[in-house]
Amino acid sequence: MFQFIVRRLLQLIPVLIGVTILVFSLMHLTPGNPAHIIAGENAPVETVEQIEERLGLNDPIPVQYFDFVKDAAMLDFGNSWRTSLPVTDELWPKFWVTFELAVYSTIFSIFLGLIAGIISAVRQYTLSDIGIMLVALFGLSMPNFWLGLMLIQWFSINLGWLPPTGWGTPEQVIMPVITLGTMGAAVVARMTRSSMMDVISQDYIRTARAKGLKERVVIYRHALKNALIPVVTVVGLQFGSLLAGSVLTESVFAINGMGKLIIDRILARDFPVVQAAVLIIAVVFVLVNLIVDISYKFLNKRVDLD
């Protein structure tokens, strides 16, 4: 196990190098001069040139890239070109908001999806199964922003039960989590049903039932544990997607998180903030997948991590 973890951590290095190259290239290929945006449209040429010199934009591209990688390796992302504040001071508060949103949404999707998937698999081809799968299909097809707007209309405007915007209080958390976690719950439900149906048809499940074990023990102790591996894989991938793709939900509910920050700073050509944000998301995504791989061994001792 230790050797596997070390090997996977070493594999992070080329992945992160590729991410830095991609992010750096895309930001510098984006039309527009950051110095012009900072100085203003009517700024004299001398002012623009001074800003370019101060920001290092006149240096060769390879020099700029290696400076970025060297500073990032020391967790020094410099200062924002837009506000002149340290990037970490701007980034971390927004990151934790988005991280909390992704964690709560993942927990919601796991809880709802597992229950729905298990019921659907145990009662396969019944009205319960058909109804759950139809709801799951609806959840997969429904855009997040539309669901968020509908929840605001129902629970904030019509009923007045929940605040329409913001983040922090339990009441403010409910609708964004439902909005972001609904599609994930649908995916988990469908994957759980498919995996459970494969496991339930195995010989050892029939043997367990023939021994007189209670159906609850057969389902939860024997079937579910072996059916969770593909579900865990999906959950790990979804968490990374939620972390990187929550911008629409944050916009609908006016949540000041990472997604909104990235969009705003891309428009402002604030390269240090955007590069740091994408790099942090990439690191978290890879670490989550490492945790998923390690969890396979705990779910099934026969899994060979080597």
Describe this structure in words.
With about 300 residues, the protein is mainly α. The protein is built from 13 helices and no strands. α5 runs antiparallel to α10 and α10 runs antiparallel to α13. It is flat, with a radius of gyration of 24 Å. This is ABC transporter permease.
Notable features of this structure?
306 residues, mainly alpha
pLDDT average, as an integer?
A: 81
Low-confidence stretches: none
Shape by Cα distribution = flat
Radius of gyration: 24 Å
Question: What is the strand and helix layout of this fold?
Answer:
Blueprint: H1 2-29, H2 34-39, H3 45-55, H4 61-73, H5 87-122, H6 127-141, H7 144-158, H8 170-200, H9 203-210, H10 215-244, H11 247-252, H12 258-267, H13 271-299
Helix pairs in contact: 1-13, 5-6, 5-8, 5-10, 5-13, 6-8, 7-8, 8-10, 10-13, 12-13
Transmembrane segments: 12-30, 101-122, 134-153, 173-192, 227-253, 273-292
Subcellular location: Cell membrane
Keywords: Cell membrane, Membrane, Transmembrane, Transmembrane helix, Transport
What is this structure, in a nutshell?
It is found in: Cell membrane. Its main location: membrane. The protein has 306 residues and is mainly alpha-helical.
